[in-house]
Fold this sequence. Notes:
Strand content: under 5%
Number of helices: 2
Shape: elongated
Order of helices and strands: HH
Helix content: 55-70%
Largest sheet: none
Mean pLDDT: 84
Number of domains: 1
Distance between the termini: 9 Å
Number of strands: 0
Low-confidence stretches: none
Amino acid sequence: xxxxxxxxxFKIMELENCCVDLNLYLDIHPTDQKAVMDYNTYSYQLxxxxxxxxxxxxxxxNFGTAPSQYPFRWIEDPWPWEIEY
Length: 85
């Protein structure tokens, strides 16, 4: 896998992890204003990087969450378990 593609994928995974962690934290600390601001910042960054990745390399997920170019790109390689990290 191309280094730029892998770097972008790692950044997406990093931001997804940050969002999940902050979401769990906010479940029990919903009035932490800084955590809400951080969550929103990471969420916007994540959405932008996912859009960038999908425009360059194809969809990251299926089932209506990401439009596909023609031909349908979801079936293109590599599959997630085929990526060498």
